[in-house]
Amino acid sequence: MEARFGLLGAFEAWTAEGPVSIPPGHPQAVLALLLVARGRPVQLSALVDDLWEQDDSKQPGKPKNVVHQAIKSLRTALGDTGKTLIVTVGRSAYRLDVPSEATDLHRFDALLQRADEETTAHGRSERLTEALALWRGEPFVGIAAPGVATTRARLVEQHLQALQRYIDAQLDLGRHQKILPQVRQWAEREPTREYFCRQLMIALYRSGETTEAVNVYQAFRESLEEQYGAKVTPELKDLHVRISRQDPALMHAGPTSPATHRSAPPRTLPPVTANFVGREAELDELTRCLRQRPEAAGPLVVAIAGPGGMGKTSLALCWGKRHQEEFPDGSLYADLRGFDRENEPATAGIVLRRFLEALGVAAEEIPAGTEARSDLFRGLVDDKRLLIVLDNAANAGQVRSLLPAGARCYVLVTSRNQLAGALAGLGAVHLPLDPLSGGAARDLLGRSVGSRADGDPGAVDRLLAVCEGLPLALCLVAGLVQLQPRIALARIAGELEEHRLATLDSASPGSGFRVVMSRSWDVLDARQQWLAGLLALVPGPDIGRSAAGALLSIPANRVDGELRSLTHASLLEQSPDRYRMHALVRAYLAERCADALPAADIREALRRLTRYSLHAADAADHVLHPQRGRIPLVPHTGASPRFIDRGAAIEWFDAEHRCLLDTQRVAAEAGWYEETWQLAWTMHTFHHRRGLTDEHLTSWLRGQQATTHIGNLGQRSLANRLLAGAYTRAGRHEGAREHLKAALAFAEEYGDQLAQAQTLQFIAWNCGERGAFPEAEAAAERALDLYRALGDAAGTAQILNAIGCYATGNGDFCRARRCCEEALLLSREIADRDTEAATLDSLGQLAVATGDFSEAVTRYEDAAAMLSELDNAYAEPATRERLGECYLQLGRPSPAIEAWTYAVRLYRRQNRHGKADQLTARLAELTGSP
Fold this sequence. Notes:
The structure is a single chain. The chain is mainly α. The chain is built from 42 helices and 14 strands. The strands form four sheets. A five-stranded parallel sheet has the order 8-9-10-7-11, sandwiched between helices. The chain has a three-stranded antiparallel sheet with strand order 1-2-3, with no helix packed on it. Helix 8 (176-189) packs antiparallel against helix 9 (194-206), helix 25 packs antiparallel against helix 28 and helix 38 runs antiparallel to helix 39 (853-870).
């Protein structure tokens, strides 16, 4: 064997050349962590997490460099062996290539498993003796690291359990006098462990020391009650009574587990966490499944699925505890450890052995093979009404051998994977678990925050927003709040918003959010990790199927199949055409992706997505506003979606809008300047019609800034002009004037008459919005001359309508009517419905100015109908507000109320609450309602 390692005591290492001295500190800690991983790759980020607590003041500035240096030291210390032993996996992971038998830790685990499979007390005794002989002292002595400390605690507990099993085997063999000193020693060292107390009582009784056995019980009971306020179990009480009565059955060598003396049905469900809240709908669904199940030949199986930390185990246990009276034959629980990075998954043979013991089967009567144990188990429970909880299953294979045959059994299976499909032949019911509702999440957090929430309810809202209803995150935040009673909630919320994963981990070092999520990441293969990582990095809250295809460079019709493994693993949620991840799951996967994938690959994938989004938005924009000019886009090799009509284009923008804005932000940060300003251009129409004033301004601020890096005067003129328009729409006129001046200067320098005309049109608009109608009309006249000279019909129609508005404002009604009617005729000739609707509205305003309210109603009704058809939600409410005024002037309050009510609803949708409030007040006056 090339190398051997000793971890169960002082750290030891040997190669073919002899003993090796491993440098203390980080090299020993890294080696220990790689050994514990059992040959699985360990990501660099995971090593950093295990070596230092997130808030550790001793953590170096560049922790990954320290890990790299530790790896180098290990390879040097191990000599030629180290060159092949420590393997670099990908860009940022390491694996230790040693067989399991090369470490005492793994031999210890293997011997414990073999002991479980032994059918005689003698066989168990031999295997456990071998296992305990490997134990030289506290594991990982001298290694101080959070990840190592967690494993050390687990191993210490595992050692104590192995020792208890060894003592049981000795008692089964009648060696009570030989084992008595050792039992006494451990009962004194572990004074709160009832199992050692029970074993000591039996050993003393069989050795003829009945009085001392009774005294041991009394001392243990008093100590437990006085120091911990706890009571002994019914099983220990029963043993005390039997010893006090000198039960002769206890004198016989043989199995002594309380299960063999169980008179009551087994109840092995663990306690429910104190933080369990909500889930009433899911609890009701579990009950409904039980009550309304159809006649079946087999057991009822419900597969509860969800990502790590969603509360699957708590749900199953809570339901089980509430309904245990409905299962008179008992309840059984097994943690299958399907996602445990430190322990091997529980085998069916071991779980069946424990189930059989719990059901009262003597150890020597339990068969050796898994199939035989399964047959015995099914025979025992065939006619029983039993609840079985199989927790943390990795796959259906782990579950099938543990399922009873009887139709009266109810089996709850929890897993991060969606197992209902794999268990479909058994009629399994799928119960997906979603994040907690807002009320339940607030209730859970409120238990820890308490009265502190009254002083800063906004901070509580921020804490809840980060957690997004994930029970694990809420519990970790609750722990943070409790640990920092003097720290303001706002400060905790700020830390959580800025450093989400690190802050959550600091609440529970060694078992925080990253540790829980790592168990899902570690079971993914390389392809699945690549898919999950890239999807976690996408801009926006979700992603459509076609966009995912562009990101991953796979055809859209193959996306569902490729991503099915991630939805199956509860890492990805799928709606009909979109995919979404929980924000905290995304943050973790993005972190792992950044470590695992080359930066160039990530950048290339995001640029593919950006260009797909740009071309798709351009196609949708062209359908929304076909008369609008086109711009040459950066090339995109993939296919873009097609939109059959205006409704389909609007629906696409509604679904993708948040993603488009975030994509533009990513493009700006990456220095993709052409894509950045072109995305602002393609979102322009949608922003206008939806009345998304803030988003419109944000997109053009990015777009204008991007053009400063390009140097193209035409692009700079356009971006400054449209940014000025966004400022004007937002009522920030001074900001608009600066950019209008720049836009006109660039257009004149470039000699672009069309850009000059368009900029003059925007200058006129800005003046009109400020009430400076003479200035507005003068600028518009200059624009009109340029549009006519260029033969631009669309521009001519728009500016004629604008001049008509300004002329109305100046009191020149004849000129206003002449310009508006010419604009209306021209817009209809070129089928420019946007300008037609705007002109109808202008004619309505002209009719009001001349006192013809009947004509105004006609014009406004036509304009409102057309704006609604165009989905121009920004302009429509103002038109309907003016329409309501005209109805009132004509003495028609009912249609006025209807028009204003609809306008208020549209204003609210756009967060134009000032407008909505003013109109609501007028409605109240009109209707006489408060």
